[in-house]
Amino acid sequence: MKKNSILFSFLMMVFAMTLQAQPMPDEIKMKKFISELMAKMTLEEKVGQLNLPGSGDIVTGQTSSSDIGLKIKEGKVGGLLNLKSVEKIRDVQKVAVEETRLKIPLIFGMDVVHGYQTTFPIPLGLAASWDMGLIEKSARIAAQEATADGICWTYSPMVDIARDPRWGRIAEGSGEDAYLGSQVAEAFVHGYQGNDLTKKNTMMSCVKHFALYGAAEGGRDYNSTDMSFQRMYNEYLPPYKAAVDAGAGSVMCSFNDINGIPATANKWLLTDLLRGEWGFNGFVVTDFTGINELMEHGLGDLQTVSALALKAGVDMDMVGEGFLTTVKKSFDEGKISQATIDQACRRVLEAKYKLGLFNDPFRYCDVNRAKTEIATPENFKAAREIATQTFVLLKNDKETLPIQKKGKIALIGPLADSRKNMAGTWSVAVDHDQSVTVIEGFREVVGNEAEIVYAKGCNITDDPKLDEWSGSWGESGIDPDRTPAQLREEAVEVASKCDVVVAVMGESAEMSGECSSRSDISLPGSQKELLEALLKTGKPVVLVLFTGRPLILNWENENIPAILNVWFGGSTAGQAIADVVFGAVNPSGKLPVTFPQNVGQIPLYYNHKNTGRPLGDDEWFTKFLSNYLDVTNDPLYPFGYGLSYTSFTYSGLKLDQNNLTGNQTLKASIDVTNSGKYDGEEVVQLYIRDLVGSMTRPVKELKGFQKVFIKAGETKTVTFDITPEDLKFYNYDLKFDWESGDFVIMVGGNSRDVETAQVSWMK
Ligand code: BGC
Questions:
Q1: How remote is the CA of residue 143 from the centroid of ligand 1, in Å?
Q2: How many other β-carbons are positioned within 10 Å of the β-carbon of residue 425?
C-alpha cells in the first residue's frame, strides 16, 4: 500500500515535470509560425525588427512618403515609440503591412505610466493608497484607453526602489520598500495585461528600469550604482521579479552602470539573472539611446557597444539605431552569430504574436473605440475616486481639516490655478485642457455654500533658471507683472478677509520625474515666506502640498496646523482635493517612502540595519554611538505614516503561539479601534524583525498590510497569517531561505508606532 502510494506520487511528479517542460500548444503554434516567418527573412530584415525609432513628425495621410515611412518600407523598423493618435498609428501600420516585403506589423509603445488621457495620480501617489485593487483598476483603465488609441505596449510599471528623494524619478515608482513595491508591480502588470494579451483592450507591460536605477549615487539622474549582491537580491530586485512573475511581457534596461558594467551591456543581469534564474521569456528593450550611451560609459565605439548589448541579452534598440547600423557589419566580421540575431528577432516577433498583431495588425486601431472609450465621464469618475485614496494627511492639529463649507475661504498659491501642473510628470497622453484645477474643484464641490476667493500669492519658484529647467511647457511660471512681495501682499489681503486659508503649494510637475534631481528638497522660491505671512493673519492655514518626492518640511510641520500631501493627483486632482478638504472623503493614504528631517540624513529608510552601536529610539546624541551631532536619526515622517480625520487606536497584539516549528502558520491579531468621530479606513501594517541571523538583518521589514474600513466607535480585529515564507531572505550565498531563531512581530499604523511580540521559530 505504502509502496503503491510512493510510486503514484513519483509518477505524478514526473507527469507534472513533463507538463512544465513542455510548451503549451499555443506556444508550439507560435514557435512554428515565427520559425516559418523567420525562414523567409533576410539578415537585414531581422535586424530591422530590433529597431525602435522615435515617431518623428508623422502627418496623417502622408506617412508613406515620410522619412519614417521610407524606413518602414525598407524593413528597417520593428516598432514605434510614443506616437499618439489612432489615425496616425493606423496609417503607419498600413505602410508596414501593405508596403513591406513580409508585411510584418509594427508594435506601438508609449509611456502610459499613470493613465492615458485620463490621468491618475503619479505612481508614488498610487503606492500611497496601499490599495492594490485600485492600482490595478487604474492600470486597467489606462490599458482600455491606450489600446483604443492604437497603443499595445506600455513602458510601465517603473519599479525602481528609491531611497533618495533628491532623485526626481522617485515620483515614477512606488517608494523605498521591496515588499510594497512588489505588490504594486504585480497590480500594474495584471491591470495592463489582464488575463489575455490578445484581447483588444489589454496591452503588454514593460517593467523598467532593469535594474537598480533608483540607487543612482547622490540622487543625480543617470548616475552609477555600486551595490552588494545581498542588498540587490533582498532590497532592490524583488519588485522587478514580481513583475516578471506576474507575466510582464517585456523588460526595459536601465541607463546606469551596475558594479562596473552598465545594465544595457550586462549579460549577468539581462541573461543569467533575468532569463536563467527568473525564467523570463519576453523581450528586452533598451532605454532611450541606452546603447549609444555605452560609448560615454567608456565601453567602445558604436559597433562594439551594439554587439555587447545584443550579446548581453538586449533584443530591441530604442531610438539610437546602433543595431540597425552596425549589427550586419559585426556579423560579417564574425563578431556576432546568426543565432544571437535570430534569438533577438524571434523574441520581438513573439511579442507581436502574443499581442495578436499577426492575426489582425489593426486590432488596436478602432477609430470608433478611440472616439468612445477615451477620457470618458466614467473614467474621470474613477480617477477622482482613486486620487482621493492617495492623499496623505501629514498633520491635522485641532481638527483644522476637514473645512466646513461656509463663509469665505481663501484659496492661495501658485498651484491652485495651474491646469498643466495637475497631471504630474510622465503624462504623455494627457490633454491638459481636460484637467480640473483646484479652484475649479473647490467651486464645484462648495457650490454656493461658501465663497472661494483666490490669490496666486507667489511663484512656484522665483529663479528663472529653475523655472525654465524644471519645465513649464515653454511658458514661464514666473509672474511677469508682480514682484514676489506684491504677490504676497495681495494674498495676505485676501486671506485677512477670509475665515480660513488653504495654501496650495509645492513643486511644479516637472520638478520631479526624469532629469529633475534636486539637491535642496525644500519648498522652492518664496513659498515659505508666503506661508509665514499667511500665518501672521491669524487665520487657520491648511497646506495642500503638491510634490513628486519627499520634501524637507520641518518648519512647515512645526508651524502649519494642517498639511495634506496630494502628490500630483492626475486629471481630476482639483475635485479629488476638494472631496478630501471638505470631508466627503476621509484621507487614508500612507507614505510609501520616508520623509527625512534634512538632506544630510539621506539615505534614510525604515528597514535599515542596526549597526554595532545603535542609538536607542527617541534618543539624540550619545558619544561613540551611531548618530549625528546636529540632527536625530529619526525621520520627520516615517514610512507607512499617514493620519485620518478620525483616530485609530491599536491594542492587544496577540500571537496564537510563541514557539513554532517548521511549516506552521502563526496568527498575529490586533484590535484596531476607530476612536474618533468619522468613519475611516486604516492601513494596518505588519513588520517582522529577524533577531539573530547568519548575516545582519534589517531592524524591521514590512511583511503584510490590510486596508480596513472601521466605523466611528467600532473595533475590528485584524489578523495576519505568518508562515516561514515571510521569514525568508537571500543569505550571504544568495540562497533564499529562512533560519531558525527568534523573531519580533510588529503591528501598527506606520513603521514607527507598532505593538510588538516575540516568537521562537525552529526548522
Ligand atoms: C525614460 C524611460 C522611457 C523612455 C521612452 C526614457 O528617457 O528613461 O522611462 O520609457 O524614455 O519614452
A1: 18
A2: 25
d(CA 480, CA 130): 42
Our answer on whether the CB atom of 82 is closer than 6 Å to any ligand 1 atom is yes
Where are the alpha helices (H) located in 480-553, listed in sequence order? 484-496, 527-536
d(CA 187, CA 676): 32
Q: Which residues contact 147 (CB under 8 A, 6 or more apart)?
A: 200, 201, 202, 203, 364, 369
* Minimum-distance ligand 1 atom for the alpha carbon of 252: 10
Distance (angstroms) between ligand 1 centre and the Cα of 288 equals: 6
Nearest CA to ligand 1 atom 8: 287
What's the average model confidence in pLDDT over 593-619? 95
Q: Any idea what the Cα angle at residue 34 is, between residues 30 and 37, rounded to 5°? A: 145
> β-strands 680-690, 741-748: how paired?
antiparallel
Is the model's pLDDT at 399 over the cut of 80? yes
Weakest mean pLDDT among 62-71, 127-136, 485-494, 512-521: 62-71
- The contacts of residue 20 (CB under 8 Å, 6+ apart) are none
Question: Which pLDDT does position 2 carry in this prediction?
Answer: 45
d(CA 529, CA 200): 53
pLDDT of residue 617: 78
Element (H, E) at 183: helix 178-193
Sheet containing 500-506: give its strands across.
392-396, 562-565, 541-546, 500-506, 408-412, 451-455
**283-299 pLDDT, tens per residue?**
999 999 999 999 999 99
Give CA–CA dist 269/660, Å, rounded: 38
What the block records as the C-alpha cell of 675 is 476612536
Which residue among the candidates 287, 317, 366, 467 is catalytic per the annotation? 287
CA 111 → CA 124, 427, 430, 628, distances in Å? 16, 8, 11, 42
- How many residues belong to the chain? 763
Residue 25, pLDDT score: 67
Backbone angles phi, psi at 581, to 5 degrees: -60, -35
Q: How far is CA 690 from CA 693, 696, 748, in A?
A: 7, 9, 18
Give yes or no for residue 756 having a pLDDT over 90: yes
CATH number of 648-762: 2.60.40.10
Which grid coordinates are listed for 683?
Answer: 492601513
Segments making up each domain of the chain, as ranges:
377-592, 648-762
pLDDT tens sequence across 630-678: 999 999 999 999 999 999 999 999 999 999 999 999 999 999 999 999 9
Q: Which pLDDT score is estimated for 7?
A: 53
Q: One-letter amino acid identity for 176? A: E
- By the 8 A CB rule, do 352 and 104 touch? yes
**Over the stretch 315-364, which tens digit does the pLDDT of each residue have?**
999 999 999 999 999 999 999 999 999 999 999 999 999 999 999 999 99
Q: Determine the topology of domain 377-592 in CATH.
A: Rossmann fold (3.40.50)
pLDDT of residue 559: 98
The yes-or-no answer on residue 671 being catalytic is no
**400 Cβ inside 6 Å of ligand 1:** no
CA atoms within 13 A on the CB side of 17: 6
Give the predicted TM-score (pTM) of the model.
Answer: 0.96
For residues 614 and 624, what is the distance between their CA atoms, to the nearest angstrom? 10
All residues at 6 or more sequence positions from 705 whose CB lies less than 8 Å from its CB, including other chains:
130, 180, 683, 684, 685, 686
With beta carbons less than 8 A apart as the criterion, state whether 307 and 331 touch. no
Average pLDDT, the chain: 95
Residues 57-113: tens digit of each pLDDT = 788 788 888 889 999 999 999 999 999 999 999 999 999 999 999 999 999 999 999
- Cβ pair 484, 462 in contact under 8 A: yes
